[in-house]
Amino acid sequence: MLGLLALAVATVGIFGVFSYVVGQRTREIGIRSALGAQRAEIMRLLLASTSGPVRLGPALGLVASMAAARAMRQFLFGVSVLDPAAYVSVCAILASAAIAATFVPMRHAIRIDLVSALRCE
Description:
Blueprint: H1 2-23, H2 26-34, H3 39-71, H4 84-111, H5 114-119
């Protein structure tokens, strides 16, 4: 139960951070749209800027969690220290949350009126 709670908190945190980062770029999106950028180009730009943490985070997290699991081996009963299903599922859930957190504000920023986007701070 504690692991599921930690996963839920991490998912909400990732969603919040990625939503905030993309939301802060609303003005940039408005300027790019005003200069003639296509929606696909803007989407590609935002996904490229958030893909680095989505790739680096699970890699570092896997290394850290494997080291922590080995250190806490004596406290884990009935659970394998290197459970690939658990690691893959957690990485997939957190990466999905990060991608969803990028898409939601991105769709809103792309559809917003250009004047409103340029006034956004």
